[in-house]
């Protein structure tokens, strides 16, 4: 560290921490935008206010409720919205923006989703973004593609900051992990598609016949389908008979597993057991699942909707609302079998990326408070 850098850091350390009301604070993405440096106190992300209703955790985010900013504006310096405004009306968001402005509290918005993966109809999310994007004092997003769409739709500039790691830093490899191409390794070649609890954007039934055909054509090919009990157990509250019927028509090489939610450790172990993870999304923007796959060194087949290919190297296939390019999906499976998977990022690389993201947020907050 140069003498100048040391002086800057010493000067920063004498300032009071910037208090950020993150919406939410207890989310893996948000937690991993904080510095891991010993004694890092320049940014203080406040804990999530306890929800007045819901099942605990941060949902629904109380900081977005009417009156919360009015009652607590002296407890934070900046509000940074990431997720959780799904059920908040555009009028309520407009009131939030006005209240923050009246109390001279800057609003930062990270545009994770340009289309909400939980909404079949995009009109509500579009209306919410039509309030938040023009109303924010600063915008952040994750990819150049999303940045260009934001500029096109709202004539606003957004800083591009990469998605940080998902797997804990201490569990990442210290050296690059190089896997041989599955075709040269021999043994099984496992293609996984996890349907979770069937988000609105997911359409696994459309992909199943293609994945069935593509994996059957590969020596040792196995198609593993995981799903939560609520959609694949006949007694589940969201049981989907069309998906269950489609799975029943698949061949013996299809390994169907029905279970409740994985713990984090179980999820990372599951992803590491795959050679290829297929994202069955007809719409979306960015993906934390993709980043978790990168962390464990598993290849990803991602649809052309959204900006997944901008986020990280993927095997792209044509899939969006009303369209499936079956040949490109088969090619994605085939190329992941013959190609050498890219090495996952090392602990040092992810740690350096995280510090870069943390510094960028700190500088952004400080600039807004000095304006």
Summarize it.
The chain is an alpha/beta fold and 371 residues long. It has two domains: 15-165 and 350-370, Glycogen Phosphorylase B (Rossmann fold, 3-Layer(aba) Sandwich), CATH 3.40.50.2000; 169-338, Glycogen Phosphorylase B (Rossmann fold, 3-Layer(aba) Sandwich), CATH 3.40.50.2000.
List keywords for this structure.
371 residues, alpha/beta, Rossmann fold, 2 domains, six-stranded parallel beta sheet, 15 helices, 39% helix, 16% strand, globular, Glycosyltransferase subfamily 4-like N-terminal domain-containing protein
Total number of β-strand segments?
Answer: 14
Helix content: 25-40%
The whole-number mean of residue pLDDT values reads 93
Oligomer: single chain
* Gyration radius, rounded: 22 Å
- Beta-strand content estimate: 15-25%
* Unreliable residue stretches: none
- The second-level CATH architecture of the largest domain is 3-Layer(aba) Sandwich
- For the biggest β-sheet, the strand order reads 2-1-3-4-5-6
Number of domains: 2
Order of helices and strands: HEHEHEHEHEHEHEHEHHEHEHEHEEEHH
**Class by helix and strand content?**
alpha/beta
Our measurement of the CA-to-CA distance between the termini, rounded to an integer number of angstroms, reads 29 Å
Number of helices: 15
CATH topology term of the largest domain: Rossmann fold
CATH superfamily of the largest domain: Glycogen Phosphorylase B
The level 1 CATH classification of the largest domain is: Alpha Beta
Largest sheet: 6 strands, parallel
Shape: globular
